[in-house]
Every structure is written in C-alpha cells, then in structure tokens.
Specification:
362 residues, alpha+beta, conserved putative lor/sdh protein from methanococcus maripaludis s2 fold, Elongation Factor Tu (Ef-tu), domain 3, 7-stranded antiparallel β-sheet
C-alpha cells in the first residue's frame, strides 16, 4: 500500500513538472513573436487636412428617366388573347407584343364589305341611267334638265362608293390593330395588361424605353433660375445608395416654372455608357455654381456612432483624440466636406477603429 501511494505521488509530481516546462516554453515563444499590423500600437496612417479650391455646388434630388420612351395603348376593343413579352424583354421595332380578339373587328370588316358591294351596284345603275339620258338627249327625246338629274345621281353614287371603300379600309386597319407591335427598339419596362383582360381604346398595354439615352430630372426653386440658367452650366449626378458619380453630358433648364410648386424643371443628360442605371432610380444632381476653398476628409476616416459623427485627430504625443464634426455633402472624389470641427493643418487618422483602440490602450 505504501509503495502504491509513493508511485502516485511521483507520477503527479512528474506531470506538474512537464506542465510547467510547457508553459515556460510557450511564454518564451510568445515573447519572441513580432507584433501584428493590427495591434493598437502599430503605425496608423494619417492625412493632413488643408483647405483646397473645390467646386461649389447646389444639390437637388432627381429621378432617372429615359429620353426615348413610349406607352403602347390599345386601339381596338377586345379580349386579350396572348401577351408575348414581359417586363425586361428586349424588343425590336415591329415585334409582336400582344394579340387581341379580332371577332368583333372581323364582323365590322364583313359589314363594310357588304356596304361596298351595295354602293358598287348603285354606281353601276347610275352610270347606265346617265348613258341612256345622254343618248336620248342627243336625239332630242329628253330635256337637258333630265340629263343633269342623271348626272347628279351618278355623282352621288360615286361618292357613296368611295365612302364605302374608305369604311372598309378603316375596318381593315382596325382589325390590324388587334396585333400590337413594338413602335421602337428598346426594353419593356412594364406590362400593364394580362391575358384574359379586356382591352379598351386608349388603355395602356406596355411601357417601353430605349436604354441608349437616360437623363436625371430635377425640380429646383424658381429663385435658382438666374444662377442655373447661365451658359455652360456643369453638373455631376450622384447615386447615394451606391456612392457612384457620373459627369453630366448636358444640362437643359426648361424656360418655365410650375405655377403650383413654383419650381423649374432641369434635365441633366447622362453619358451613353452608364451601366446599372435604369429609369425610376433615385439620384442627386450637384450643379456647379462656382469655386471656393473648402476642408474635406476622406469618407473612410469618419467615425459614426449613433448621433455622433467625428474623426480621430493626431496630437503631439503620438496619440489621438476624438473630435466631433459637422459634415456637409459628399464630394465626387470620395471625400466629405467638413463644415465645422477641424482646422487646416491638423492630421486625421485614416483608420478610426485602430485609432480608437490606441486611445483606449493609453
């Protein structure tokens, strides 16, 4: 029994010694490891803020629309038999979009065809009567008044025949409208009628647009007309959700104001190469109205915590202090205008998270 107890004690002591050796080796290895780049004490890049001459702009909310767009409406009444294309489909001019029941149009064509036949028969009879009247007049068997009456009857029959022909052509054209075709090359934006519904003349069926030309449409206060109506006005279009900016190809200020809202409409054409931009998107137009020195910081240097918006400013002791800012609108180069909170010559941390960790560590 005594030998067993001594054996257990010796094995326990050996295990503790081995564990201590492993811990010491691990601590020695850790003391030799180099600090990582993400450690709070690692060098944090900064940028010196200085006023720079930047474009002075006036921003206005806008909506993207197609320059060439069309709403295809029904021209005849009838039930929709087939809707061949859906929203998003690319179509070419003349492609069949929808077919409408033609039974009512067929009956109209049959009726006008019968009217043409009746008018043709009356015209033949009037021509024969006129020829007999002329022949009798030549032999002095009929008065001139009778010939004139026969001539008038013939002219009336000819006019009725032409009217009947026009009615038949109109009925044929109406039957052709039962096949709805694309009026231009483009993309189907919306399908507004489904198969089985009743089409009525003037009811919209499809909305199409040509993707080659897009523009941003903004409504600006009438007080800005004098400033924005200058020749050579430039603008940039911002898409706030994606952070994308595009230079305007042309700016057109319409020479009229809405009497209800007292705003004027401005059309800002986008460049032809604008992938990912479709009609209906929200945008913000920045009209360049001048140039002035302004402070700006990179957008990545701004720290947002709830209602707090600020940056970490480097001090003379190698640390950083949090500074609350009042910021303005984003700029086209990816920076954000600073309205208050910074002065020229100060250095701002480009990585606010690491700067905050360093400040807590100190």
């Amino acid at each position: 029994m005594y030998s067993y107890i001594m054996f257990r004690y010796a094995r326990h002591a050996l295990s503790r010694a081995a564990l201590s050796s492993c811990l010491l080796a691990g601590l020695a290895g850790a003391s030799l490891a180099a600090p990582t780049a993400d450690a709070p004490g690692a060098a944090i890049p900064t940028v010196r803020i200085a006023p720079q001459a930047r474009a002075q702009t006036y921003a206005s909310e806008a909506t993207i629309e197609a320059i060439r767009q069309a709403t295809v409406a029904a021209q005849v009444q009838g039930r929709v038999l087939e809707a061949r294309v859906d929203a998003g489909a690319r179509v070419r001019r003349g492609d069949v979009l929808m077919r409408i029941d033609t039974r009512e149009a067929d009956q109209a064509v049959a009726g006008t065809t019968a009217g043409v036949a009746a008018a043709q028969a009356r015209l033949v009879e009037a021509r024969a009567s006129l020829e007999r009247a002329r022949s009798l007049r030549a032999r002095n068997f009929l008065s001139a008044a009778a010939v004139d009456q026969a001539q008038a009857a013939f002219d009336a029959a000819a006019a009725q025949h032409k009217a009947a022909e026009a009615g038949r052509a109109q009925a044929d054209a109406a039957r052709g409208f039962a096949t709805v075709t694309a009026p231009m090359d483009g993309i189907v934006a919306q399908r507004l009628t489904e198969a089985g519904e009743m089409a009525q003349p003037g009811r919209p069926l499809y909305a199409l647009y040509a993707p080659g030309g897009l523009r941003a449409v903004a409504d600006v206060p009438q007080s800005k007309l004098a400033e924005l109506g200058k020749a050579g006005l430039k603008a940039k279009v911002e898409f706030p959700e994606s952070g994308r900016w595009l230079d305007a190809a042309a700016v057109v200020v319409l020479p009229s104001a809405d009497p209800r809202t007292h705003t004027a409409r401005v059309r800002v054409s986008l460049p032809d190469d604008a992938p990912g931009v479709v009609p209906g998107m929200a945008a913000r137009v920045h009209f360049v109205v001048g140039e002035a020195p302004r402070l700006a910081v990179p957008a990545g240097a701004i720290l947002r915590r709830g209602e707090l918006t600020g940056v970490y400013v480097a001090d003379d002791q190698g640390g950083f202090s949090l500074r609350q800012l009042r910021i303005g609108s984003p700029l086209a180069d990816g920076s954000v205008e600073v309205l208050a909170g910074l002065a020229g010559g100060e250095r701002v941390a480009l990585d606010p998270v690491r700067a905050g960790l360093l400040r807590q560590a100190r």
